[in-house]
Structure formats: structure tokens, C-alpha cells
């Protein structure tokens, strides 16, 4: 598909592209080379006010009158538009996020699959009848919240739009989307595709801008009935506090320090690609990144050696070259990750392997060499804190009980992987791990559009993806009819 015709420097409100109310823009930087990609609109509280009003008007008008089946047909049409535009969306994501093209293409196809899934599910959410007192019929209805706010991060814009906006639209909500100021091209392109697919004006509104301006205004807006936020723990607390003042529900998907547990009886040939790829995908900038690899002592040296061999073969380069690992999103993020590597060096952690940064990399790019550290103590900062970069630590353990204690021994609880042939152990650990998803002899289940996703502890609360998201983006009404 040719370039998607959307204005990079405007907001989408009520079906119309317009300049931000303040008339200001923000620079969007290509992390592969530091060059200016585009100017984006600097949305403010005034734009959020207008977007919320447009969303409410859509609920009161055409969008709110559509049946569930009609909403599903629109989402199916939008899914087809995304598939047709997948190559262009992948290119935009590579430029914007620094993600290798093949990963951007996978994200575009995941967005299409989310829309397809929710298109088919839109008319499958049913209420229930409840046995009650004589002379009554009691039933429940699933209804949309109303206007929903969606604050999505820069690392997976398309996937998170799919799982949150897609589900919210399927349930009949009208959405105000605030993409990250570091990466919002595919969010804006999605707005144009939604228009082309026939989504009624105001059903989806998009306001780029700074988190402390547009994001804060959306979080605190009294016209918003539900918020979905994916991002850091610190900002998640601010979002939840703002929402609490309006007593509205919030879905938070925050940080992670996700472990993979490798036992001596594991199929190491099957495990190795997952152990490495889940840590360096998108340059490690993934909430569910496998940043901790826990290995039973009997196979520790072998696993570390085999991971190190893979690390030394990684290709690093600009995103459009489709390497194994591209740049980090920004110079600021690069400095944060380099700071952690400085801590590793100063505390004497073993540097097992580090990929080579080619001398030909653009000088303005935000590159960090993927780094493997072992052995690392479970309580070390690099084993406890989210680094959000291509850095993995390997931690030895003796036996199942110690492995479980180490795995659960952080403030986070998003995802975990377990590698063992012992069926009873698989079930014990699936129950014992404190997290939102457990993968046995795999990691990530290929994206798992159908699988509810979210965390516990400081990884957040609420679930998106799968059918469970439809319950989160709706509210339950009980009706009791006395008829005698």
C-alpha cells in the first residue's frame, strides 16, 4: 500500500483533522539517526475537552445508535484496512520507534488480528437471567462505560491500540486516544484508516501531546468514564490518583521484571531462542521482557554459554535495515540504560557477552549494545529494577522452592516462563508464580491476542486482550422486574 495520507501535525477530533488549540507542535525524532521525522501537534487541555465532547456527541448520535453487529462489521472493515496497509505501518513504526521492520510488521498484523477478534466478539457479550424471588424476573445487561480514555506508550503503539481501543469500540464506547509524544505516527495513521473504514465521527479521537499536558488532562477529565493506561509505575500512580478524584475505573499495565525459570530437565534447544529473544526484542523495551533468566545450577554454565553465543551473533543497526536489535527510543532512554550498565560494572557483575556495535552506526542514533550478565544475585539492583533496555541477568538456583522464591521476589508480577518436562512441577509453578500470565515451555504464546493480559503487584491491575477486555470496557447493570 502507498503512504497513508494523514497529517502528522494535527489532532483528530470529531472526525476532523485540525491544528492543536494552542497552535504549537513538538519535534518527533528518528531514534535510528537522531534526525527530525516530523512535527506533531502539541495537544493541550483544550483539545482534550473538545475530544471528550466529540466522543460524547458520538455516543448521543450515530455511533451510540449502532447495534453490536454493526460495530463488529465496522471493526472487521478496519481490520482489513490495516492488513492492506501493514507494510506501510511497519515502515512508520520502524522510523518512529526504532523497531526492526519485521517486528513492526508483526505489530501491524497483531493490530489487525485484535480488530478481527473484537469484530467477531462485539455481539457475543451477553447478559444473564438470575433465579430470584417469586414474582420477579431478574437479569443483567452489559453496557459501555461511555467515553473511555486511552494513554498508550511508545514501545508498542499498534498492539496496545488494538487491545484497548479495539475492545472499547467493540463494546460501544467512544474513545479519546493520547499516544506517546515520542512515537505516534502509527496512531495517527490508524485514525485515518478508521475514517476510511467508515467509523462515525467522534467514535475515535486522537490527541498527541506531552504526558504532563494532554495526558494529565485526559486522566483528570470529568467527562471520561474509564481510563486505560500502559506505561511506567510512576506515571500509573498519577493516572490512578487523577481518576480516583472522579471515582472512575482504571486499567493499569505497568512495569515488569519477568523471569524465565529453566530447570535441568528442560529442552534447552527449544528454550534458547525464547530466553534471548524475549529479552532483546524491541531493544528490551517491552513490559513483559524476560529480563531475568533463572537457571538450575546443574545446567547454569551450559545455558549461559549458549546464550552468550547468541548474543555475540546479534546484528545491531538502523531499524529500516531490519537488524536483530535496533536503537532505543531516545537519547534519554539510552542514558538510563547506560546508567544501569555502569552500576553493573561498578558492582563487579560478570559481563558474559556483549554484542558489537558496528562502527558504521549513525552518530545520532540511540544504540546500546545488548548485554548478558551472570551470575547475578537475586537482590541486586539489576535483578530487581526494570531496566527497559537490551540487558539480561542470569541467576542460578537450587531446586524448585528457591526458584519460586526468586521469581516472586520483586515488586513486579507481569509474566513468567517455565521450562521443564516435569508435568507436576509445571502445574505447581503455574499456581505458585505471582503474576498475570505463566507460559510453560514457551514464552509469549506468539502474542496471544485471545489471552487476557495484565499484572499483579506493581505491574498493575485489570486485564486487556481476549474476551476479558470486553468485560473491563463495559459495566454491568442489574434489572429486577416485579410482575407478580
TrEMBL record:
Domain (Aldehyde dehydrogenase) ranges: 17-479
Database matches in PROSITE patterns: ALDEHYDE_DEHYDR_GLU (PS00687)
Domain of life: Bacteria
Keyword Transport among UniProt keywords: no
Key words of the record: Oxidoreductase
Catalytic-site annotation from UniProt: 253
Protein name per the record: Aldehyde dehydrogenase family protein
Organism: Pseudaquabacterium terrae
